[in-house]
Design brief:
Elements lengths: L16 H18 L9 H9 L4 H19 L5 H4 L2 H29 L5 H9 L8 H44 L4 H4 L7 H12 L10 H23 L1 H4 L6 E2 L7 E2 L1 H18 L6 H7 L1 H18 L11 H33 L3
Antiparallel strand pairs: 1-2
Helix pairs in contact: 1-3, 1-13, 1-14, 3-7, 3-9, 5-7, 5-14, 5-15, 7-9, 9-12, 10-12, 14-15
Length: 361
């Protein structure tokens, strides 16, 4: 049985606004990733920087999910595996994701089968299982998986602390070696949540370790994270200096020529997780409009692909010049996504989805 050792009263009325600000930053990065598909191709250092930093937006979102789910366990005195797998608790998490998603899915379905392809029931159910259209839908598939799998990750991290996280990280590494050795298609790999376990597990660890300060009193963990960052820095340096690594489907991108370019998260975790660790330990922020928009990040995520496709579909043709009007379009898509997501959060996610989930006892 997993004993709950968290203090649950201190954080009930205290919100960590750093989480909201990180969500806002990540959402800007997510939109940036989706728009360049219609714009200039990134090459050289810009291409590498996108892979090393911007593409970790989704990984960071999942780390924040690991933190907030752990926070929820603490607030509600979830103390053992039976509590974690209580049907009502799992259903609440599912509804908080599914209720805001479904209307957007219906709108995207109408747009897709009106503008791009004729109606087909088989395709409709395929899109339904894959949670939508476009490259960003895999995030929801992974989140639905994690509703079931996160209690297992939390169990090891809660019981064994940093060693538990290292075990989760090692499991991620073994999976990546298996993926690489079997030439797993990227169209399959993108939907498997194991590739993000290191980030989700570290989010759970950050919550468990939230009371400890970053100091040399916890020197073993601090040294381990410093060594991790150094290894990550060497990894970046080697990738910048070696063109062979830049196209290797183990070190940076995972692609089988099917159009999906996915990044390898467990190597990037070497330098990205220590940075987030220091941010959580050292940075204290107050509420702001950025933090408020971070609260709307899920609604923004849901609506941004629909906004992106709609604006690009009705924009004037570039006549072969992919850079023509690109930055103006990027600005309009970003503005439309944030305004639309904010309104959707106010009118639907906050009022309907959260209240419906709250009815589940």
């Amino acid at each position: 049985m997993v004993q709950n050792k968290f203090s649950t009263t201190k954080h009930i009325n205290q919100r960590n606004y750093l989480i909201d600000i990180l969500k806002w930053v990540c959402m800007v990065f997510v939109i940036f990733q989706h728009v360049p598909a219609q714009g200039p191709t990134l090459q050289g250092p810009a291409y590498l920087h996108e892979n090393f930093w911007i593409r970790f937006a989704v990984s960071t979102f999942l780390l924040l999910s690991g933190y907030t789910w752990s926070l929820s366990y603490g607030k509600h005195n979830v103390s053992n595996m039976n509590d974690m797998y209580k049907p009502s608790l799992l259903l609440k998490k599912f509804l908080r994701l599914a209720i805001p998603w479904f209307p957007i899915f219906i709108l995207a379905t109408i747009f897709n089968f009106t503008m791009y392809e004729s109606w087909n029931w088989l395709n409709f159910f395929r899109y339904l299982i894959l949670c939508g259209y476009g490259g960003g839908n895999y995030f929801l598939v992974i989140m639905f998986q994690l509703i079931i799998l996160f209690p297992l990750i939390f169990y090891f991290v809660n019981k064994y602390s940093f060693k538990g996280f290292l075990g989760v990280y090692l499991f991620t590494v073994l999976f990546e070696i298996f993926r690489w050795s079997t030439s797993m298609p990227s169209s399959v790999y993108m939907y498997i949540s194991i590739r993000y376990f290191a980030f989700v597990g570290f989010g759970a660890y950050l919550y468990k370790d939230k009371e400890n300060k970053f100091s040399f009193k916890s020197w073993k963990i601090d040294i381990a994270l410093c060594l991790s960052f150094a290894a990550g820095f060497v990894y970046i340096w080697f990738c910048f200096e070696n063109p062979i690594l830049q196209t290797n489907n183990f070190f940076i991108n995972i692609s089988d020529g099917g159009g999906w370019m996915l990044h390898n998260t467990f190597l990037g975790a070497l330098y990205w997780l220590p940075i987030l660790y220091i941010l959580f330990k050292k940075v204290k922020v107050k509420t702001s409009w950025i933090a408020y928009m971070g609260k709307c990040s899920y609604s923004i995520f849901l609506i941004q692909m629909l906004i992106c496709v709609s604006i690009l579909f009705f924009s004037p043709p570039s006549n072969g010049d992919v850079t023509k009007n690109f930055y103006f379009l990027w600005f309009m898509i970003t503005l439309g996504s944030f305004v639309g997501g904010w309104l959707y959060y106010l009118l639907f996610e906050k009022i309907i989805a959260n209240k419906v989930a709250a009815l589940i006892k």
